[in-house]
Amino acid sequence: MLTVGLVGFGFAGKVFHAPVIRAVAGLRLSTIVQRHGPPDPKYPDVEFVHSVDEMLTRKIDLVVIATPNTSHHPIAKQCLLAGRHVVVDKPFTTTLAEAQDLVQVANQQQRFVSVYQDRRYTGDFATVQQVVAEGALGRVVLFESHFDRFRPERKPNAWREETLPGSGVWFDIGPHLFDQALLLFGIPEAIGADIRVERDGAVVDDAFDVTLYYRHSRAVLRASMLRPPLGPTWLVNGTKASFIKYGMDPQEAALKEGRTPDEPDWDAEPAELYGQLITPDATRTVPTLRSSFTRYYENVRDVMLGTAQLAVTPEWSLDVMRGLELAAASSRAHGVLPWSP
Questions:
Q1: DSSP-assigned beta bridge partners for residue 316
Q2: What local confidence, expressed as pLDDT, does residue 153 receive?
Q3: Does domain 2-117+297-310 correspond to CATH entry 3.40.50.410?
Q4: Beta-strand runs (E) in 135-217
Q5: What is the DSSP letter of 128?
Q6: 119-290+322-338: CATH, from 3.40.50.1220, 3.30.360.10, 3.40.50.2000, 3.40.50.300
Q7: CB pairs under 8 A, 24+ apart, for 10-18?
Q8: How high is the pLDDT of residue 163?
Q9: What is the per-residue pLDDT for 154?
Q10: pLDDT digits (tens, 9 = 90+) for 115-171
């Protein structure tokens, strides 16, 4: 049994990591670093400690970091230097330079560092991947993905909405959408971005439209805190057909409700949210494939056991960081910027 220490037990730790780790056979969540507050009674078999230093005195094979973005680099570096494998919640770090430093340290320590890209493992994205790969769309000319919410007021005491490095919706949602686009289409030739503030009183970006330029196609990534999630989540136009799908993957909502991935049909999607493949002659319903956030941690487990290659590699995560920084630079410059490795 491989032991896991979780650093950070706020929203990300409680919702997206702890219950998912516990649902993976072969992993045991043994320790949680929670600086304040009593232990969570839902985790009676887990030791709660108050510091990373204290956690590192325990037998821990893997450290998962689910803390505010500005702390990702120092905590990950400390854990790598202590000889642990490390998973970092997105974004990897607040700068590409910090991410490159972590990759170098991981290589020196002969440990891996990976970024928690759980949104690779949603049923809707798996369905988009299948539709694109099957070729029914023909050559894809335009891809759009949306991650919209209607939250007109700033969330009180939320570090993501404060003027800190790595704050704002682009570094929050952008890592997911950019990762998905890279999986589908590869590295773009250029990026053009409009990353902006829309809400009254907001002090960091809360909306973006980011276009990835490919030779014969475009991938457009969109998010807003002032757009109710009523429009399409996915829109893919090709030379032969289009695919359109509404609704968000149900896993986040299920986790927020306290459901766990080991429950049967815990994340089942209603048929009315299935996507539609539209051709000039007909419209066909495409049932949503099943997936699970647990697949990320199953891969990490298998890597530690020596039976698999890492799915979210350090090199891949550096490219995501390059994309995040290039888009931010494009938005500041009000122009399209070429990709440079």
A1: none
A2: 86
A3: no
A4: 140-148, 190-196, 207-213
A5: H
A6: 3.30.360.10
A7: 10/66, 10/67, 12/66, 12/89, 13/66, 14/40, 15/252, 15/255, 15/256, 16/66, 16/89, 16/116, 16/118, 16/252, 16/255, 16/293, 17/64, 17/66, 17/89, 17/116, 18/43
A8: 79
A9: 82
A10: 999 999 999 999 999 999 999 999 999 999 999 999 988 887 777 778 788 899 999
pLDDT above 70 coverage of the chain, percent: 100
Question: Residue 245 in contact with residue 167, Cβ under 8 Å?
Answer: no
Give the position of tokens 């969330």: 155
Place of tokens 């590295």: 187
Q: Where in the chain is the domain with CATH 3.30.360.10?
A: 119-290+322-338
Where in the chain is CATH 3.40.50.720? 2-117+297-310
Q: What is the pLDDT of residues 189-219, one digit of tens each?
A: 999 999 999 999 999 999 999 999 999 999 9
Q: Tokens 């757009």 sit at which residue?
A: 227
Distance CA 332, CA 242 (A): 33
| pTM of structure | 0.95
Rounded distance, CA 219 to CA 240, Å?
18
pLDDT at residue 161 in the model: 76
- Kindly report the backbone phi and psi dihedral angles of residue 277, in degrees, each rounded to the nearest multiple of 5, phi listed first: -100, 115
b/e burial code for range 145-164 (CB count within 10 A of at least 16 → b): bbbbeeeeebeeeeebbeee
pLDDT, tens digit, for every residue of 288-311? 999 999 999 999 999 999 999 999
